């Protein structure tokens, strides 16, 4: 394994964008294979080639900037699904509200009647029924 360590020294390696491109390439491959679009199977191959290009690249600053742009784009999407997952998990014991001023999500226990919520972000107070 020492040869692999020497090979990867000074290289960028895998990151979130590389993993996303690789997984997207595999998914596209299976979709095209199931649909019988064999003439488009070069698209997943390009995804794999680009992933390995990023992995073995020595231009670390540029690959890092690309990954940061991807994460900045993907962060709201991941946050949306993370919040929905938590809402689903807590659906029996808590209710979620949005602050009318800053749109921050607030969690309140169910079955308490009318309560006054205070947003921890902007200090806006509002009354809700749980």
UniProtKB/TrEMBL annotation:
The portions of this protein that span the membrane are 12-31, 37-53
Alphabetically sorted, this entry's keywords are:
Membrane, Transmembrane, Transmembrane helix
Q: Which domain of life is it from?
A: Bacteria
State the protein's name.
Zn-finger containing protein
